[in-house]
Specification:
Blueprint (H helix, E strand, L loop, with lengths): L2 H23 L6 H7 L12 H31 L1
Length: 82
C-alpha cells in the first residue's frame, strides 16, 4: 500500500463514521416499513421540517457522495498499483 492509498483509506474511514453519526442524529418520521405494510403510513403528512432536519439531510447527501468518490478513487489507485 502506498501513501496515497493509506491517506484515502483514513479519510474514507472518518467520513464513514461521520455519515453514521449524522444518520443517527436525524429525527424519525413516519412509521417506517411497519406503517407501510399496515397502511398506516404518514407519507402524505405535510409537516414542516425544521432547519436541523434540512441541514442533516443535505449533509447526509454530501457526505455520501464524498464516500462514493473516495471508494472509486481507492479502487482505481488499487488496481493501478498492482
Amino acid at each position: 500500500m502506498d501513501l496515497l492509498q493509506i491517506i484515502l483509506t483514513i479519510i474514507l474511514l472518518v467520513f464513514s463514521v461521520l455519515l453514521v453519526i449524522i444518520i443517527m442524529l436525524q429525527t424519525k418520521r413516519g412509521e417506517g416499513l411497519g406503517g407501510a405494510v399496515t397502511g398506516q403510513s404518514n407519507f402524505y403528512n405535510n409537516q414542516k421540517k425544521s432547519g436541523k432536519d434540512v441541514f442533516l439531510k443535505k449533509a447526509t447527501i454530501v457526505i455520501s457522495l464524498i464516500c462514493l468518490v473516495l471508494v472509486v478513487l481507492l479502487n482505481i489507485f488499487g488496481f493501478i498499483s498492482q
